[in-house]
Design brief:
- The complex is a heterodimer.
- Chain A is built from 5 helices and 10 strands.
- By secondary structure, chain A is α+β, with helices and mostly antiparallel strands.
- In chain A, a hairpin with a 2-residue loop joins strand 4 and strand 5.
- In chain A, helix 1 packs across helix 2 and helix 4 crosses helix 5.
- By secondary structure, chain B is mostly helical.
- The chains are: A alpha+beta, B mainly alpha.
- At the A-B interface, strand 2 and helix 1 of A face helix 1, helix 2 and helix 3 of B.
Chain lengths: 240, 112
């Protein structure tokens, strides 16, 4: 009855080999599945945290470098007459491009989500969206704002205001409520445009009442806005 | 000794080869493992009791594994976890065989 080795059948040993093979394979598979599913989320969280820290430290370094560069630039411009004209032009351009910290009188608009969302209602109506910020910002530009920042993010040429999930990205950095829009400009003109501009008026005095969105408009004697921290590198653009 | 050597060799083989098994096959692997466990202990018992029939053993192993795989496949497609039936059947047989193996040792060592 079959080949034997001592008192054991070879076929029995063979099935035991298969059993062992399946055991270790199942063990490996289970470990692999566990590794893949469980800490994947944790890995992503760690990854995001690390990147966020890296970004903020790089951002600080960038600010330091730019300040240093500015200092060196103005020193050269001041010391040599030839450069003075260029230096002044550069300063003016930097000021207009939003690359310098600025201050001046202006308007502060604070927007918050509705404190309570009634059950059964569409929650979208009770939240501040990217387009709400766009409406206010566009109205403020229309009213002659010379510099605008939202939550400390200066609006410059490459700035976008768009939503990503539940956050609004400004200069690609996620911001949550409250949204503080600070605009430097003629305070009367800025306050007037928010009443004149159709969309802004609707938001400030229409939807905010209807849905309980919190919109506060304050006139400020002195507003301080930070510079634009984002990249100013141009890769495709050339002067015509 | 030979079955244990076989088991160790099999485990080593599996660890060394480290065959990647896709997640959807994990359940088939599990049921194959159970079938192998069932056959191994059944064979061990038969071998100890000197009633080992090679054809019956190999045939049983192959048929059991195949049927168990088919049951898992069927269950996956019907949305019913029929594979649990195979798990229970193999599990019960496993314990029966273990009990008989234990009894065999008792008899051999005159502990009864």
């Amino acid at each position: 009855m079959g080949a034997r080795l001592g008192r054991w059948h070879i076929s029995l040993a063979l099935v035991f080999v298969i059993l062992g093979f399946l055991l270790s394979t199942a063990f490996n598979t289970q470990r692999l599945i566990g590794e893949r599913s469980r800490p994947r989320k944790q890995n992503l969280i760690d990854f995001i945290k690390a990147r966020r820290n890296e970004r903020s430290s790089l951002g600080k370094e960038l600010v330091e470098r730019r300040t240093e560069l500015e200092l060196q630039g103005s020193r050269i411009a001041g010391s040599q007459d030839v450069f003075t004209a260029y230096g002044e032009k550069l300063e003016g351009l930097r000021l207009r491009s939003g690359l310098t910290p600025v201050k001046g009188p202006g308007l502060e608009v604070v927007l918050r989500d509705a404190p309570r969302i009634p059950t059964g209602a569409d929650p979208g109506n009770f939240l501040i969206h990217d387009y709400d910020l766009q409406i206010i910002v566009n109205a403020l530009w229309r009213g002659g704002a010379e510099a605008i920042a939202i939550n400390g993010e200066r609006l410059a040429a490459g700035t976008g205001i768009r939503s990503a999930g539940s956050a609004i990205l400004i200069n690609s950095k996620p911001q949550g409520e409250p949204y503080r829009i600070k605009a430097i400009g003629g305070t009367k003109a800025l306050a007037a445009i928010l009443k004149k501009d159709n969309d802004a008026r609707l938001l400030v005095s229409g939807y905010s009442q209807k849905y309980g969105l919190v919109v506060k408009v304050m006139t400020k004697k002195v507003l301080k806005l930070p510079p634009y921290y984002g990249s100013t590198k141009l890769t495709s653009l050339k002067e015509e | 000794m030979i079955p244990i050597l076989g088991l160790v060799a099999g485990i080593a083989l599996g660890l060394i080869l480290n065959v990647p098994v896709p997640a959807w096959m994990a359940r088939y692997l599990g049921i194959a493992l159970l079938a192998a466990l069932d056959s191994s202990f059944g064979g061990l018992r038969a071998n100890l009791e000197e009633s080992f029939n090679e054809r019956l053993f190999i045939g049983g192993f192959l048929v059991n594994t195949t049927i168990a795989g088919l049951i898992v496949y069927l269950g996956d497609n019907l949305g019913i976890e029929i594979y649990l039936a195979a798990v229970v059947a193999f599990g019960v047989r496993l314990f029966q065989n273990l009990a008989l193996i234990r009894r065999h040792f008792f008899k051999v060592h005159h502990w009864e």
